[in-house]
Structures are given as C-alpha cells and as structure tokens.
Design goal:
7-stranded mixed β-sheet; 14 helices; alpha/beta; N-(1-d-carboxylethyl)-l-norvaline Dehydrogenase, domain 2
Length: 275
C-alpha cells in the first residue's frame, strides 16, 4: 500500500518507521497515487497542507495525527468535513513519543472514525504498535488537544519547584475540565480516561518540558526564539479566545494559563484559582 505522510517532522518520521516495517511504500509530502494520507503537521496547518494537494486527493482515506485545533478555533473534523466531503476522515492519537516508536517500544494508539477503520487498523498495527478503535471523533480530538494544555500547566508547577502533590492536583483538575468540555460537545465521558487523554498526559512530552522552562522563569519569547514552530499546547492557549467562541464554551483552565504565560500573572495565584 502507498501511504502519503504530510508533515515529515519527528512524529511523521517515527510513524513512517512503523509503516515501513509493515512493508508499505511511503510518499513524503506527496499524495498523487497514494491509497491513504496521514497528516502529521502542526494542527493549525492541517487544512492548508491538505489543500495544497487537493487536486490529487480523490478517494484516499485521510488520517489526522495532529493534536490541536484549526487556526480559526474549529475542530479539525469540522473543517475537513467541509473541504473534503467525499473522503473518509479518521484521527490517530495516543501516548506515543517519536523516540519510542522509532526504538520499537511497545506502544498503543486510538484510531477514531466511522466505517473503514477496521481495515486501517490492519494496515497500521504491528507487533509493537497496538491500535484501539473508537467512534468518538469529538472526544479523541478534544482530549488530544486539551491534554497538551494541561501538561504545560503541570510542567510549570514542576519548573517552579512545586511538589508532586501539587502536580497531581493540577493533572486531576485539568483532566476533569477536559472531560466536562468534551461531554458538553457530545463526547463520551470514558474517552478521556483512555489513551488519547489521560494516557497521553502521563508522558514527559515537549509540552511538559516547555512548561518546566516557563516555571523556571524563562520568558516565552526567549523560548520560542529557539523553536522552528509553536508547540500544539501553546498554540491552543494563545488561540483560546477563538476556540472558546467557536466551540461555544468557557475555558477557565486555559484562561489561567494564558494569564501566566502571556501576561506575567503569578503561578501560585493561578494554581489556587483552579477549583
């Protein structure tokens, strides 16, 4: 099978290693003649990345690995259903650091979508990469996007020398807020206890490391100056007003983080605002 990968960064390369093991042919940033398209760009570039190849996107299945929202604040599924109404769209998320995938660590992900996901599972799954199936497209998107936000907050607490008790408090309250948000949008409550949210929260990810640097007192401008792109969690925090407006919900947890990161608010006061 020919599988296109749009966005050949660290995760794109990592998932490619697993697909090559399954004897698939990988097309990098090219979709012409492919059977399936896997998107691993930053979430705010998913729409543009696919539109760049729209003339050659016919009946391929589209699988999104990007964790976040469209840059206007919409869910990625909402945007792509309008742009690609004749393509089946799925979401593949999980607690899978790129290094672990490349090293062949036993890993697991969730593939969410409608009909056809069973066949995709057969093509992607291997001895050390297990795939669970879900129908909860909204839930896995919300969980995967918002866990990036929570893990930044946990990292801030760690960087500011708060102990594990405080970190666990932030983790738990953040997870509760994600679940509340998701359920209000029609998601299934149990989705947030699975791999795409609580499972992914446990990783020491780049978002967690970013939070640690902020907690140590580093300015966000200085941190971003050394990065080629904005991390997903930070992009969500920065765009939280648009996201809140598009989803029709309040995001108090994200409001607190925005004030800490971009307005210099007190970390301690921010933590104590969490209820």
């Amino acid at each position: 099978m020919k599988i296109s990968i749009l966005g050949y960064g660290t995760f794109g390369q990592a998932i490619a290693t697993r697909l090559i093991i399954n004897e698939h042919e990988i097309l990098i940033n090219e979709v012409k003649g492919s059977d399936m398209i896997l998107v691993a760009t930053p979430s705010y570039r998913v729409k543009e990345a696919l539109l760049e190849h729209k003339d050659f996107i016919i009946n391929q299945k589209i699988i999104i690995c990007s964790k976040g929202f469209n840059k206007d604040g919409d869910l990625i599924s909402t945007v792509l259903e309008k742009e690609f109404p004749h393509n089946s769209i799925y979401f593949l998320y999980g607690p899978t650091l790129a290094e672990g995938l490349i090293n062949g660590d036993l890993s697991a992900m969730v593939l969410a979508g409608g009909a056809g996901k069973e066949e995709i599972k057969k093509q992607i799954e291997s001895q050390n990469l297990k795939i669970e199936l879900s129908n909860d497209v909204v839930g896995v998107q919300i969980g995967a996007a918002m866990k990036n936000v929570v893990t930044i907050f946990v990292g801030i607490a760690e960087g500011a020398s708060y102990g594990q008790n405080t970190q666990a408090y932030i983790f738990t309250k953040g997870l509760q807020e994600i679940q509340k948000l998701g359920v209000s949008l029609g998601a299934e409550p149990n989705t947030f206890m699975g791999l795409t949210c609580s499972g992914d929260l446990s990783l020491r990810s780049r978002n967690r490391l970013l939070g640690i640097e902020i907690g140590k007192g580093r300015k966000i401008e200085d941190i971003l100056a050394k990065k080629k792109y904005m991390l997903e969690g930070l992009a969500t925090i920065k765009n939280h007003k648009n996201i809140s407006s598009k989803l029709g919900v309040e995001l108090p947890f994200v409001d607190i983080l925005f004030s800490i990161i971009f307005e210099g608010a007190s970390i301690e006061k921010g933590i104590r605002k969490i209820i």
